[in-house]
Specification:
single chain, alpha+beta, 2 domains, six-stranded mixed sheet, three-stranded antiparallel sheet
């Protein structure tokens, strides 16, 4: 006598079907190009345009102090200083830092005021690859000034999204 195997319980069957669907979905996502998770020079320019709006971005007044060659992109020291008088009438309202190759182009935005004393920001950032980093200073008179620096990274950070 041959007996048909007993059907799987509904709970177990639906679990196996869902597990197969999740596995298939994960396999499809792993086949997508890694560049989808990365910023690009175009994405950086779009972000800059969203920051400055219709204003003109002028070069100057902003200085980036960042090593031109870093061994490890996981912790890159960066100092931004803006040449400003820092008075009630003339001060830096915000400093924005953007990049072109990390998973997201926006690094940080910091709001300042006339009581800040000095328009300077020192941080450590991650860099996914060799790239250009740009700092934008928004002044109290509505003008925008920028400075950029190219950084060569020998050991990239932010690689969990990149394959």
């Amino acid at each position: 006598m041959s007996a048909d195997p007993a059907p799987l319980p509904a709970g177990r069957r639906s679990f196996l079907i869902r597990s197969g669907q999740w596995a298939a979905g994960a396999a499809i996502v792993s086949l997508l190009p890694a560049s989808l998770g990365r910023a690009s020079p175009q994405a950086m320019q779009e972000l800059i345009r969203s920051i400055v709006g219709e204003a003109t971005l002028q070069p100057g007044k902003v200085r980036l102090d960042v090593p031109p060659l870093v061994e490890n992109g996981n912790t890159v020291p960066l100092t931004v200083s803006v040449d400003s008088a820092i008075t009630e009438a003339d001060h830096v309202k915000a400093i924005h830092i953007v990049n072109e190759k990390n998973p997201q182009p926006h690094v940080i935005s910091v709001t300042l005021g006339p009581r800040a004393g000095k328009a300077q920001l020192s941080i450590r950032i991650k860099l996914a690859d060799s790239q250009q980093v740009t700092a934008i200073a928004e002044m109290s008179n509505g003008s925008f000034w920028s400075g950029s620096a190219d950084v060569v990274v020998t050991l990239a950070a932010c690689v969990e999204d990149l394959k």
